[in-house]
Design a protein that fits this description.
about 30% strand; alpha+beta; five-stranded mixed β-barrel; rod-shaped; single chain; 2 domains; OB fold (Dihydrolipoamide Acetyltransferase, E2P)
Amino acid sequence: MTQPIPNPAPRRASGGFLRALLVLLLAAGVALALWTWLTLSWPYSDGVRAGVLQKFSRKGWLCKTYEGELAQFIVAGVSPQIWEFSVRDPAVAADLGKTVGRGVRLHYTEHRGVPTDCFGDTRYFVDEVTVIENARATEPPVR
């Protein structure tokens, strides 16, 4: 007589669920990394702003970023407009650290939709700084 072949052990439903959850989490992580790369690689806009650099610092609890404030004078005697920006390049940050209180011209790119503030607190990233001679913190820059 032949013995009947025993049925294989039934699969647990939780194993398939865990595998599907792992694949879903992995896909979400890849999508987030791709979106972050995309938003940081292609700028929404770029331009130049001029004024007096009034504040520049490195801050953050976990992600240290370089942040600054540019005072833009429109008319003498009127309060300046404050423009906040971030810097990702340490070489540019070193140049900016030397120009606090001086007139500067900053080239920037705007990156909208960056999913985390580990790259900067603002959506404006400065990538070039030029010192404007004959500009002081109490006067608007010479045009």
